[in-house]
Amino acid sequence: MNPSPEQVKASESAVRAAGDRTIEQYQNWMQTNAAAHLMRAARQSGLTARLREKQHTLEELCESLSLQRETTALLLDALVAIGFVEQYGEDFALARAGHLLCQYDDDLGDRRWEGLVDRLSDPETASFADAAEYRARNAATQWIHTAAAMQAAEILDIGGPDASPGPKILDLGCGSAVWSCAMAHRDAEASVVAVDEPASLQAARRTAESIGLGDRFKTIQSDPLAVTVGEQQFELVVLAQMLSGYSDDQAAGLLEKATAALKPGGRIAVPDFYIGPGRAGLKESLGRLSIHLATPQGRVRDLRECQAMFQAAGLGGIQFTYLAASEAGLGMMVAEKA
After folding, report:
1. What region holds the Methyltransferase domain (predicted)?
2. Shortest CA distance to 156 belongs to which of 209, 235, 214?
3. Contacts for 32 with CB less than 8 Å, ≥ 6 apart
4. What is the dihedral of CA 178, 181, 182, 185, to 10 degrees?
């Protein structure tokens, strides 16, 4: 039976649509790569640093940086188009998001990824950041998880009508303490003890000060793996983006330390990367690969492995949820001490 004219047209339309999608995907790849080169050119030429200081005209930028006018004008137009630079009349300024680039990502992550090929070809000679540097980088960039931290506090029902007031929270490996501070912010009687290395604690104190936690926020300067925090002292322990940065033995030991610090019936909350049953999107894939490249033995574990690890530490009532507010694709596992 021959297809009808309508069926032929529908088939041709489907073929054209598939072709259009292929072309669109190709163009997206090329534009994404080009945008990265635009931002690198802005950093390497000095434009980013100069615009970080204050607004400048095209002429001021060319004169102070010895840049060619026509090419600089075209580059600035392109940077405005991708939102990295903003234009106000004749003045150019670094966009607000550009000001967020810190010492760990001012190169747009190049240092993080340049070891990928070496790791592919010869993992034995690949270089890694040490654990303290890895945590310091996380602390410096942890502000991106603010919305997810607020969602996590809601999921835990801290400050809610059915929650016990004034929980004592241990933030073990606090980073910038975004997660525990968001939780303490929901309950005016909650208190936080944050544990980490000096660079991270500096960022953590700034976070606590920014929301007025005052003397409800205390710190202990120590490697989280080595710290002594006592037993049965806390209603909630937070291990944010910690377990994936360590070897299996280290992660298990940290989880056992956290469990020991909990009072009976206390909970542990672990916002982190996880491998679920579905196919990972780009942000999840990048997160997993980034941890693999940055840590000697750290890795993102699947949910069944994590469940077994939690059970071995004496935790039950294990629940997992993806954090929809996370821009990085994080989830959170929550468990209770019997």
Report:
1. 169-266
2. 235
3. none
4. -160
- Long-range CB contacts (within 8 A, 24+) of 103-107: 103/140, 104/136, 104/137, 104/140, 104/141, 105/141, 106/43, 106/48, 107/43
Under 8 Å between Cβ of 255 and 225: no
Higher pLDDT pick, 163 / 131? 163
Residue 267 parent element (H or E): strand 262-272
Beta strands in 90-196 (DSSP E): 91-94, 168-172, 191-196
Total Cβ atoms within 10 A of residue 309: 20
In whole angstroms, what is the distance from residue 79 CA to residue 101 CA? 16
Structure-token pair, residue 245: 């940065």
- Beta 234-238 vs 315-322: how paired, if at all? unpaired
For 177-214, how does the pLDDT look when each residue is reduced to its tens digit (9 = 90+)?
999 999 999 999 999 999 999 989 999 999 999 999 99
Neighbours of 318 (CB within 10 A): 17
Instruction: Please tell me the number of Cα atoms within 13 Å of 98 on its side-chain side.
Output: 23
Return d(Cα 85, Cα 81) in angstroms, integer: 8
